[in-house]
Amino acid sequence: DIQMTQSPSTLSASVGDRVTITCRASQTISDWLAWYQQKPGKAPNLLIYKVSTLEDGVPSRFSGSGSGTEFTLTISSLQPDDFATYYCQQFNTFSRTFGQGTKVEIK
Amino acid sequence: QVQLVESGGGLVKPGGSLRLSCAASGFAFHNYYMSWVRQAPGKGLEWVSYISHSGNAVYYADSVKGRFTISRDNSKKSLYLQMNSLRAGDTAVYYCARDGYCSGGACYWGFDSWGQGILVTVSS
């Protein structure tokens, strides 16, 4: 199975900061990568699919990039509503593996 | 609007069984691939199982293979997860999620809709 590894596991940042989260796949996954945001007690919310395509309604401060085995989620200017946990997920195989998550905390 | 509503969770003893259901509305259920995802208390997301739009193809995480069975009834717009031989490690909130669809030779993958989640607790 493909393993997905996110870094860092926790990130402390301030409102207005530029934030980058990395996701590495154990083998190439082409462009079949999605990013989710999850807040406590809530279901995850799809932010980005196919590496860089923003889901409808997602603010443009979120962006995704990468290819092959290394991918990034960038928040250009962190807003109060963005403090949450973020997950990457691969769709290259039918085992839809998630990364372990990155918690973005208030500094 | 798209809605997914899980039911069937609860407390079960180790070795017991439980069947989760997910009622879909607001979209062409028969066109969509579906998945189950779980989240143990305080832990990350774990993909559990996937089923194709027709139900002909199913896949499972190694952690549940041989114990869980995914199925669907497109006439009822419903997704199911039969869970047998439950263990304490299966304790989690279980989500059904709309996985993706294929059209015109292209496929679109991304869990764009989720249920509210249902708690399954395995404990004696």
Features:
heterodimer; A: 107 residues; 4-stranded antiparallel beta sheet; B: 124 residues; mainly beta
Task: Give a structural overview.
The complex is a heterodimer of chains A (107) and B (124). Chain A is mainly beta. Chain A is 0% helix and 48% strand. Chain A is built from no helices and ten strands. Chain A has strands at residues 4-7, 10-13, 19-25, 33-38, 45-49, 53-54, 62-67, 70-75, 85-90, 102-106. In chain A, the strands form two sheets. A six-stranded mixed beta sheet of chain A has the order 2-10-9-4-5-6, with no helix packed on it. The radius of gyration of chain A is 13 Å and the shape is globular. Chain B is an all-beta fold and 124 residues long. Chain B has no helices and eleven strands. Chain B has strands at residues 3-7, 10-12, 18-25, 32-39, 45-51, 58-60, 68-73, 78-83, 92-103, 106-114, 118-122. In chain B, the strands form two sheets. In chain B, strands 2, 4, 5, 6, 9, 10 and 11 form a seven-stranded mixed beta sheet that branches. A four-stranded antiparallel beta sheet of chain B has the order 1-3-8-7, with no helix packed on it. The mean pLDDT of chain B is 97.
